[in-house]
Amino acid sequence: MKVVTTDEMQRIEQACVQMGITTDILMENAGRAVAEEVRRILGKIDKQPILFLIGPGNNGGDGLVAARYLGEWGAKVSLYLLSKRAPDDPNLKPVRERGLNCVDAAKSLDGLEESLASSGAVVDALFGTGKGRPLEGLFREALEKVSQAKKEHPALHVFALDLPSGLDADTGKADPACLYADDTITLGFPKPGLFSASGVERAGRIKVVDIGIPAHLAGPVSNELMTGEWAQSALPRRPLEANKGSFGRILVVAGSINYIGAAYLACSGAMRVGAGLVTLATAASLQPILASKLTEVTYLPLPESSPGIVAPEAVSVIQSELERYQVLLFGCGLGQSPSAIDFTKSLLLEKKAALPALILDADALNILAGIPDWWQKLAADAIITPHPGEMARLAKSSIDEVQADRSGVATQKAAEWRKTVVLKGAYTVVAAPAGRSRVSPFANPGLASAGTGDVLAGAIAGLVAQGLSLFDGAALGVYLHGKAGDIVKAVMGDTGMTAGDLLPVLPLAIKRLKGSAQPL
Fold first, then answer.
1. How far apart are the first and last CA of the chain?
2. For all residues of the chain together, what is the average pLDDT?
């Protein structure tokens, strides 16, 4: 499913009109789809008081259509019209004819507080997609009243139509008056701003509804939302005649005296998505500790500069083994000691031997961030998996700058560095050097705990080892990791979830995908 910018959406709508799918048709489809989703979420709506804030333009028109349908289905609908609409407006006229309560609020919001206090839900249909639209006057005042009503009555269910008013559809920058919605029902295609840091906070749960736009019109769009249908199609084949060599060999270079668990989690993540053979290269004194828990991997003990710290001369040990592996996962829990820094630079940047498909995580990224023009020294494509802090260090920017435009930053840096970038966080972004990108549909605070990134890095390595491209392997790893997190959350909640909880659930996520494509 494509993620479209404001300009792209406008071009798609213009193409619809040229095909005979008029704005009125799209608006009718959108309004009905929104009404159906509101009814699904609220459940029983008969005599349920639902208040609509209606703005100018198409977003307000969509809201009028949705209000009409909900009124016909038995809801007790009230509409506050915050801008003047023509008396013969094709969407306003049938609302009035059906006797729905329409308040002309273009001059005053008298009575809105009382109406909100008696409502079970409110629908923000003021502004849809658009850039730089300030919230002023009555619009700001109305939204502030909704926010206050939500504080006083937490059960008030706040819906946003297409996106919360005041949230920039492209960048996700939010006006201070922008609502914190419980649910955002977005039309046709998701918008990039919904997956920004502000979008995560303001949009709540995101549902994309079909409004009758032919999918092929979004064909040229390079940004996509990962879906269950896509993930199902991307899963590696598992032929009956396979052996462990059929599913790839991975060398994992990970772990140090302070981060022993990172090696365990990375190797386990690779095995749990179906990798054929995983070898852990780690400091020799750590091998007996890890062997007591990691019984399915093989080991390549490495020389140490001090207990639990890999020595630079370990490079020659690894290089002598590299040709046996399709994938090298490097960096999880490696540490940033001077010895680890020398080891990393020597292995990755000095071109002593060809490297297999490369996934770089955690300390590998922090070490590279201290090397000028590191991406030019690491010439081939690789997958890098930074969280926002690591991305800020790599890009020489701030975390706030990264989070302000996650998709834009990931896409720009993937092209500049010629690397596949996995920018982790809520709605993880995967960007390829050629310009394509995919956004994860998952935002789960349970995944914000130590070690979940190591599981993700391992899962990505396991999928690349089974023959997926770097871009597809990274994206499918992100999807399965997020899906596993949602499965765990459904059972135990998002408080207290640990990285280890994901491991036995990864095969279950794959099994469910094989059974049928999962909805978002």
1. 11
2. 95
d(CA 74, CA 33): 17
Task: State pLDDT tens for residues 70-84.
Answer: 999 999 999 999 998
Tell whether the model's pLDDT for residue 407 goes beyond 50: yes
Q: What is the rounded distance in angstroms from the CA atom of residue 459 to the CA atom of residue 507?
A: 11
**Residues forming a β-bridge with 304:** 310
Collapsed DSSP state (helix, strand, coil) of residue 310: strand
Contact 63, 161 (CB under 8 A): yes
Please state the φ and ψ torsions of residue 129, each to the nearest 5 degrees. Answer: -70, 150
73 secondary structure, DSSP code: T
- The answer to whether the predicted template modeling score (pTM) of the entire model surpasses 0.90 is yes
Task: Say how far apart CA 276 and CA 471 lie, in whole Å.
Answer: 20
Average the pLDDT over 399-406 and give the result.
91
> What 3 state SS string does 418-477 have?
CCEEEECCCCCEEECCCCCEEECCCCCHHHCCCCHHHHHHHHHHHHHHCCCCHHHHHHHH
β-partners of residue 421 are: 384, 431
Report which DSSP code applies to 337: -
- The predicted pLDDT at position 518 comes to 47
Per-residue pLDDT of 430-482, as tens digits, reads 999 999 999 999 999 999 999 999 999 999 999 999 999 999 999 999 999 99
Helices (H) and strands (E) in the chain, counts: 21, 19
- CATH homologous superfamily of 228-379+440-514: Ribokinase (3.40.1190.20)
For 149, the token pair is 């009503």
CA distance 89 to 2: 32
Query: For tokens 């400091």, what's the residue?
Result: 283
DSSP 2: B
**Domain boundaries defined on the chain:** 6-221, 228-379+440-514
- Predicted confidence band of residue 517 (pLDDT cuts 50, 70, 90): very low
Given this model, what pLDDT does residue 347 score? 96
Q: In Å, what is the CA distance from 376 to each residue of 48, 345, 419, 502?
A: 61, 13, 10, 35
Domain spanning 6-221: which CATH class is it, in words?
Answer: alpha beta
